[in-house]
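User: I need a structural model of DUF2798 domain-containing protein from Anaerosacchariphilus hominis for a docking pre-check later this week. Nothing fancy, just the predicted structure tokens so I can convert them on my end. Input:
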Amino acid sequence: MPKTKFQNVIFTLMMAFLMVYAMICYNISLNIGEMSNQVFLMAFHEMVIMWPVAFILEFFVVDNLAHKLAFRMVTPQDRPIVITLAISVMIICIMCPVMSLIATLLFKNAGSQFIAVWLQTTFMNFPVAFFWQLMYCGPFIRLIFRKMFPEK
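Assistant: Understood. Predicted structure tokens for DUF2798 domain-containing protein:
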């Protein structure tokens, strides 16, 4: 969807922000045992670390890898929605375990249970990341992006 490097930066910043913010809110609510209005504010403490990490990872590593993996399943001649979904699914499959690893390292105090805590975090996050990205975050960010950068 982005046509230039600048547009790609803007798109990735927006997508990373909304995905990371939602996932942090979800994880905080799991940790404290409930969702409350306070969670929305608490999430900003982790955002200062996790948003830049997600952006850098996505922009410089995951995007290219996800495209390569997606185009093993689809072709450029497929319908655009199929291509978009294939790329999105590959991004989720890569980003979820990696971001869960980073969150486990930084916020979980896992100690000798590190692998178990990381795997649990990944498996708890994956369904939420999957549906949040495909059903809400992705379409919403693409809508905003199309309004910001209308095709000529």
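Before docking, keep this in mind: The mean pLDDT is 96.
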